[in-house]
What does this fold into?
Amino acid sequence: MPTTIPDSTQSLLRHLIATLAYRAAKVLRDVPPGFAEYSGGATMRVPVQILAHMGDLVGWAGRMAKGEQLWRPEGTRNWDTELRRFFDGLAHLDEIIASKAPGEDATKLLIQGPLADTLTHVGQLAMLRGAAGAPVRPESYPRAEIVAGRVGLDQAPPGREFDGDASARV
It folds into this structure.
């Protein structure tokens, strides 16, 4: 039987999952028509393939949190199906973490494996949106209303969006 994680670790892990949901929802909401199959180049995955991979990653994370090391690709080329599968997977993962099922080692593996990988893919989708002419507005993410357990597509409105590049020298 897996050991449980301390409340502080559980809280941080659930916050990370909610942060992933918030950032993903911002990128995945209101995508332009045809975005699912937008090609950034011959060797790149199209957005629906990236989203399907993200669904596979959170499915793997859920199994990993229960002590299984089983990778299972299950994606489709249907945007709506993959959108639901991704957010349903996040909800399932959050439920597992809320039950304190994973131990410390599993927590570390979740962060360094599927959760970090999924965050990377959210960034890829954001870049592809920009290339497709529908950029995601920058935001002061520390001001965002991110709540553990809120892991669906419906998220709080942005805390403070702005125009331009926050890293640009004035």
